[in-house]
Design brief:
Helix content: 40-55%
Strand content: 15-25%
Length: about 1000
């Protein structure tokens, strides 16, 4: 069947040339139309990440109280979620947070609904101050396509109305824009400040007052009334509609709210800081509809914004600062693809001209690149796929490989034409001779993606590898059709008019190679031993090269986070961040900072300064390797302020880290153990940068203890007394007030001066809901001063503490092994344990998955070759090219100082399908000659001489196509492709060299074994 197919396709092309050329034109037209119509977006759609994050807000509490009342009940409720593998929880002063990771096969939409159900059932059991919860699930479709800031030289009073009328309304009208979200706006609200003395003299408890206003300010349906044939719906409408209605609200007999409180409308909230480049600003996120083209939409958005800001006088004081533009990221990736096409094409063109010495035949081979890519784009378009970062990566990988089939076909046709055959005969026979070889080479390259796409243990890896694999497989299939149909037709037309020119220099080089191979075949045992000795040197780079689970990303955004003690006022936090702004502004040009933004909210203990780096800066000093060294002496230190870069402390190192987790029941004991362990680890030079993640800035507390005898006398429980104190100190947000078309938040609390001292705390009047009698707090409780932690960390329902070790540029797996030995000399108390953290577990899992995928790839390649060769033995001779390729991989990565990371792992698996192509082309020709009656050694030498030029050409063109990737210029979402490109180049170069010399020797051994086995099986049959 394969033989008939190899003859029928080129014969069909030669018989029906017009049909073939019309088909080529039609496919090219469809592909070009698909290129302009295929949706372009940053990430592919259709995958739900197995992560969920929940935050339950409990304002003005303490971490210990949050742990007892929020976190532990939440853990019990969430621990039974389907597929949950990891549960992280944090107890902070104003919220409890949960981060959940699920098994890759877990259906996330179902889990999301289960989570909502559990939280709804949990909410009634939580303290009264808990008003809401938030669920966050990362979805690429929910990410903003355009994130930018607008700064103002002078902030107009009605700046939001100006921007809405002159800018945002125009952007919203664009087809494809789904919504615009703003942050940093100063929203109006109504504030009720209760005078404690007036309230007490009028026997008004703030506890009862807040509960009254919450129950009274509402509108609700109460039933239906039927009168005759008419039906009336009855509603209780008791909304408070303005500040005056609040002032007149009766709180007791002859006492109105305005008599004991100051009720005022505040037009702008000044309790937040949103600044861009040191000026007041707002942040804007624009989202698209699911089917919209990201690149085209962001272009239209940028055009409108730039036009309005430059021409509209009302927007003269506003300035645009672009932070993240998905359209530009996609355009950059497409530019990288075009550059790879250009340079790969240029290098391939030069190589083909040198070897073929025929410009027309060279251009015919080069035709395989655009034809294969437009056919790939058309197929992706009709499959409903998008042009995204992953599919672009697959296209970049395909550029250097799609010409291989055409090269093999053209070279064989040219050889037969030189031997005296006619143009048509050489085109038909030359294509048929190598049809099986190119079919096998294409199939083996494509089949290695099956383990990654279908059988990987990680659903996320399966999804994204399929998005990379589809373009590669389709492009290779298209290149096979081009090689078997278009190339013979074009060669027939071109070779009629001119003869192929022999290249005597290459012929002499081929003759020397043939003689060398003949000598090696005569000394095959010696050469085999020498090969094994040389191959054994692979142990040195394998043991000494770096291994990591992360690539060295070129991140253009760096966050500086500052954590403040709760006793810091908003003004103090504001002043500290202004000092940071002045430092960054002074060093802006030196560090290559394009923009910087500052964020701070009064209710948060965290401030953030984000640096947006200029990727075009010539002297970019600010990067993750040396940022800590540069910034540490410049950023001001202050008591109660913890400084971090990203998520790491400023002093913790800017590079990679490994973590040790200590588990135990008591957080204070964990801190003591961590302090001793930190010193123990620092004795070893590899762990000299160990740092315990201990927040020394604990929170000062006033601890209240109930006097139950007095509480019973006044018929007050602990919850009532706690609620009174919480309301008095923290206040509460009431139901929003509807004023016209606006819904205004309403806040009620004591005046600041009424809760500013310990003495005033003791005098707070406490009352129950049933009785208006006020009892001073000091009669009901005893108090003492203490301290408590800022954050309590838990994982899988266990309290833990983490030690970070900065290990920039070191082999992580070696360090983890050494860590085991170091920890053996550090005994832990009973009930306490340690672990290497989830990063180590993930690395082991990734290694296991990669080895499994590599094994499956080799197995699939072997099975496929067995089917196509119709032999059990011959595939073994081809498989020897795989370990030979790994020899080149490890030595090249080691010599270039490239760490073995995720990209290198992907390259290793791809190599399995690529490097066998040379051996397939060679072994297939040997079999053809032997089937024609040529003796084995003569067939090997003839086949090697005939396949020397195509193997050399395909190797050089593929390597040149990967050079832009290997040089480190191209990136994948900030992660360089260089390790992947160097892996493929190292393996391909070594495999090509050794395949020409060593594979023929292995072929003879396999053939001898096959012959002995045949004779042994035939002997009993003869004896019978």
């Amino acid at each position: 069947m394969i033989s008939s197919l190899s003859w029928s396709l080129p014969k069909f092309a030669l018989r029906r040339p017009v049909t073939v050329w019309m088909g080529v034109v039609a496919l090219s037209a469809i592909g070009i139309i698909a290129y302009f119509r295929i949706p372009q977006q940053l990430y592919p759609s259709g995958y739900n990440f197995p992560f969920l994050y929940v935050r339950i807000v409990y304002p003005n509490s303490t971490p210990k109280e949050v742990e007892d009342k929020i976190v532990r009940p939440g853990e019990r409720a969430l621990a039974t979620l389907k597929g949950l593998t990891r549960l992280r929880s944090w107890a902070r002063g104003n919220n409890g947070s949960f981060w959940m990771r699920f098994d890759g096969s877990t259906p996330m939409p179902i889990v999301y609904q289960q989570l909502r159900d559990r939280l709804e059932r949990l909410m009634p059991t939580l303290p009264e101050g808990v008003e809401r919860y938030f669920i966050w699930q990362w979805d690429p479709d929910d990410a903003p396509i355009f994130f930018f800031g607008i700064s103002m030289k002078k902030k107009p009073k009605n700046y939001y109305q100006i921007l809405e009328q002159h800018l945002f309304s125009r952007v919203r009208r664009l087809p494809g824009v789904s919504k615009i979200e703003l942050s940093g706006l100063e929203e109006p609200y109504i504030r009720i400040e209760v005078d404690r003395q007036k309230a007490r003299s009028n026997r008004v408890s703030i506890y009862r007052l807040i509960r009254m206003l919450r129950r009274d300010n509402l509108a609700m349906p109460v039933g239906e009334l039927r009168q005759g044939s008419k039906l009336f719906y009855v509603r209780s409408h008791n909304r408070l509609t303005n500040a005056e209605s609040l002032r007149n609200y009766p709180v007791s007999k002859d006492v109105k709210l305005g008599d004991i409180a100051n009720v005022r409308f505040i037009p702008n909230s000044s309790s937040q800081l949103f600044r861009i480049n040191g000026r007041a600003g707002i942040f804007v996120e624009i989202y698209k509809e699911s089917e919209a083209n990201t690149v085209a939409l962001t272009r239209r958005i940028r055009k409108i914004i730039n036009k309005q800001l430059s021409t509209d006088p009302a927007l003269a004081t506003f300035r645009l600062h672009s932070f993240t533009d998905q359209g530009q990221l996609i355009e950059k990736a497409i530019d990288q693809l075009q550059q790879a096409l250009f340079w790969g094409g240029v290098f391939a063109l030069l190589i083909l001209i040198i070897f073929l010495r025929n410009v027309r035949m060279t251009l015919l081979v080069m035709l395989a690149i655009p034809l294969s890519l437009v056919m790939t784009l058309a197929t992706l378009y009709f499959m409903g796929e998008t042009l995204n970062m992953f599919s672009l990566m697959g296209l970049m990988l395909s550029v250097g490989m799609v010409v291989d089939n055409a090269i093999v076909v053209v070279e064989n046709i040219a050889r037969l034409k030189q031997d005296g055959q006619t143009a048509e005969g050489a085109s038909s026979r030359g294509t048929a001779e190598v049809a099986l070889a190119v079919l096998m080479a294409t199939s083996t390259t494509a089949i290695v993606f099956l383990p990654l796409m279908l059988m990987s243990g990680s659903r996320m890896l399966r999804f994204y590898m399929s998005k990379i694999g589809y373009p590669v497989i389709i492009a290779l299939g298209a290149s096979l059709l081009v090689a078997l149909i278009v190339i013979p037709l074009g060669a027939n037309l071109l070779l009629r008019r001119e003869e192929s020119k022999p290249w005597h220099l290459l012929d002499r080089f081929t003759l020397r190679y043939r003689n060398l191979l003949g000598w090696m075949l005569r000394h095959r045992f010696d050469m085999t031993l020498l090969t094994l000795v040389v191959f054994a040197t692979i142990q040195y780079p394998m043991k000494n090269m770096q291994r990591t689970d992360q690539g060295r990303t070129r991140n253009s955004r760096i966050r500086l986070r500052f954590y403040f003690s709760k006793n810091y006022s908003f003004r103090e936090k504001y002043d500290y961040l202004r000092r940071i702004e002045k430092i960054v502004d002074k060093k802006k040009e030196e560090w290559g900072v394009r923009h910087y933004s500052t964020r701070l909210r009064s209710s948060s203990t965290r401030g953030q300064v984000t640096l947006f780096l200029d990727p075009t800066a010539s002297k970019l000093k600010l990067n993750r390797r040396n940022l800590s060294k540069i910034m540490r002496p410049l950023l001001p230190e202050a008591p109660g302020v913890s400084r971090r870069i990203g998520w790491r402390r400023l002093g913790g190192g800017a590079g990679s880290t490994i973590a040790i987790r200590l588990y135990g029941p008591d957080s204070q004991t964990l801190q003591d153990i961590a302090t001793r362990l930190e010193k123990h680890l620092q004795r070893d030079k590899d762990f000299a940068k160990a740092e315990a993640d201990i927040n020394e800035d604990t929170l000062p507390e006033i601890q209240l203890r109930l006097q139950r005898l007095w509480a019973f006398r006044y018929q007050m429980g602990a919850s009532v007394i706690g609620g009174n104190v919480s309301y008095a100190l923290s206040g509460r947000r009431l139901r929003n007030m509807q004023q016209g078309n606006f819904s205004l938040p309403v806040w009620l609390s004591y005046r600041t001066e009424d809760k500013s001292s310990y003495q005033k705390l003791k005098q707070i009047g406490v009352a129950s809901w049933q009785s208006p009698q006020l009892v001073p707090l000091e009669q009901l409780v005893t108090s003492k001063f203490g301290r408590g932690p800022q954050v309590i960390n838990r994982v899988n329902r266990k309290t833990f503490l983490k030690l970070n070790i900065a290990v920039e540029g070191k082999d992580l797996m070696k360090l983890y092994g050494k860590l085991d030995r170091v920890m053996e000399a550090f005994p832990l108390p009973e009930g306490y344990s340690w672990g290497k953290g989830f990063r180590y577990r993930d690395m082991r899992s990734a290694d296991s998955s990669r080895q499994f995928a590599l094994t499956l790839s080799i197995t699939f390649v072997f099975l496929l070759m067995g089917i196509l060769f119709e032999s059990f033995a011959l595939p073994f001779s081809v498989l020897f090219s795989i370990p030979l390729a790994f020899f080149g991989v490890y030595w090249l990565l080691f010599m270039t100082g490239t760490a073995f990371d995720m990209m290198a792992g992907i390259g290793m698996i791809m190599l399995v399908g690529i490097v066998v192509n040379h051996a397939i082309v060679l072994i297939d020709r040997i079999n053809q000659l032997r089937n024609e009656g040529v003796e084995r050694e003569q067939a090997i030498l003839d086949a090697a001489a005939q396949r020397f030029r195509p193997i050399l050409m395909t190797t050089l063109t593929t390597i040149c196509g990967l050079l832009p990737m290997a040089m480190g210029g191209a990136t994948f979402i900030g992660m360089p492709y260089s390790s992947l490109g160097r892996t493929v180049i190292g393996g391909l170069a070594t495999s090509a060299f050794l395949s020409l010399l060593i594979i023929p020797i292995f072929y003879t051994f396999i053939d001898d074994m096959r012959e002995r086995l045949r004779l042994r099986m035939a002997k009993p049959a003869t004896e019978e």
